[in-house]
Amino acid sequence: MKRTILTLLSALTLGFVGLVASPSQAQAAVTCTPQAVTGFTSTVLYTCTGVTPAQIQTAKDSILALKANSKASLNNGHHVFYIFAKQSEYQPYATSAPTPVLPYVTTPSTAQGNTWNTASTPSDWYTVIFIDQIIDPTLPTPVNALANVVIHEAGHHFDFYYSSIVGGLAFASEVTSNFGIKATGAQLTVGGGSPYHLNDKIKLTLSLLDAKRYSSGTVDNPYFGTYTDGGGSTVYSFEKTLTAAGETPASVAAWFVSQINGSPNLAGKGIKAVATTPASATFTIHSEGKYVVKYENAYVGTTFSFYQFAEHDWSEFIKSTVVKCGSNGLWNNTLDANNSFICAGNGTGASLNTQYVGKDNGQIALIAWPYFYSLDNQTGLYRFAEFWAEMTARITNKLQGGPKTPDRPLSNFFLCTRTLQFGLETSGVMPIETAYTNNCKGL
């Protein structure tokens, strides 16, 4: 199964414009009709010639099934879904009018859906979905096939939409570490203890850990693995003396951001700090390379990040001793991306097929579904683009189901990641510490 996302970075050379004409004006054999979705004041869905009434209803129901804050974010005219019966009909439709009503981007022939925004108007998002790519006549149709693709593609937009909340980077799924100053009112405090006073010192020590890439034998995963301390040369300390009575958590956070970004050594290692907008007590430290940033003697506790939780959850998944095959096996009756069963005996046997023998669950996932569990090849960024999008389907209860699905692990694992994303998509704010199980804390 293939889904793609073209992001703001990859759209810079496309030069597309937003919606400037009604789809009914397109001079093509295929027409696309706006569909009313209950509770939406803007048009969020267009369905095109050949899409059945049942499929139209499924698409509407999927949008309505989104969590409250995510659903509200779509009701602003800045994201539209187009569903085509055939992928071959997309380009003629998009390019038929003198002024395109829907931008055309090159889409892989096997893509079930594609989501992107534009350089000129980055808040405008488009999704195209192709029924003929979702329904494979040679395979049983997954229970939530179309619903899953609609929700998954919406998840790519939410990855962008929630970025300012989780750390101010372009995408929420590329935030590696979050830090913040705990405060009561305008007073700086240490973890809820006594407030700091004038001339007190706040110290932040960063340790860069070398990431040992976790390998499946055929696919390297740059996100997950074990980490070893890179040594004394990769430890950096910053100390702030409170010299002004009017200093606030936001001003102190801004100072640390400036110091970290002013370090040539950190810049050379791909480490940067990003302030939140509007300015607040929290900021992000982001690693663009092989290093994982940990902190010592920090003036604050960490605020949780999607990236950290994905690393943690993946590690727990790898270590799991859950039964792999057989009637209660994790991979029972599950097809990989090449339409081959992971378990022997036509998918229901008690042992793994040859290429998976001796592999842990992490390695099996990487071999079976590298598109979902490996580097985001669409942008080259170290981020969890597909993982984030499919987690949106998990918290909306729209995992595909059926044998051909990469979603089986998301049903019972990755709890920390799920808790964070569920809170964001439901309320629009990061969940507080008590929302997480003890296993998620102290990362």
Task: List its salient traits.
14 helices, 443 residues, 28% helix, alpha+beta, 16 strands, 6-stranded mixed sheet, 4-stranded antiparallel sheet, disordered N terminus, globular, 3 domains
Taking pLDDT < 50 over at least 5 consecutive residues as the criterion, the unreliable ranges are: 1-28, 178-194, 211-233, 296-303, 376-382
Q: Helices and strands, in N-to-C order?
A: EEEHHEHEEHHHEEEEEEHHEEEEHHHHHH
Percent strand:
15-25%
Share in helix: 25-40%
Looking across the biggest beta sheet, what order are the strands in? 1-5-6-4-3-2
Helix/strand/pairing category: alpha+beta
Find the count of extended strands (DSSP E, 2+ residues). 16
Mean pLDDT: 74
Number of domains: 3
Q: What is the overall number of helices?
A: 14
Shape descriptor? globular
Largest sheet: 6 strands, mixed
Describe this structure in words.
With 443 residues, this protein is of the alpha+beta class. It folds into three domains: 2-166, no CATH class; 177-304; 311-427, no CATH class. It has helices at 53-65, 68-74, 90-95, 131-134, 145-161, 163-166, 249-261, 264-268, 306-319, 361-368, 370-373, 385-395, 408-412, 415-427, and strands at residues 2-6, 32-35, 45-48, 79-84, 111-117, 125-130, 177-180, 183-184, 187-188, 201-215, 220-229, 235-241, 271-275, 282-287, 291-296, 302-303. The strands form four sheets. The chain has a six-stranded mixed sheet. A four-stranded antiparallel sheet has the order 13-14-7-16. The two termini are 33 Å apart. Mean pLDDT is 74; it is low at 1-28, 178-194, 211-233, 296-303 and 376-382.
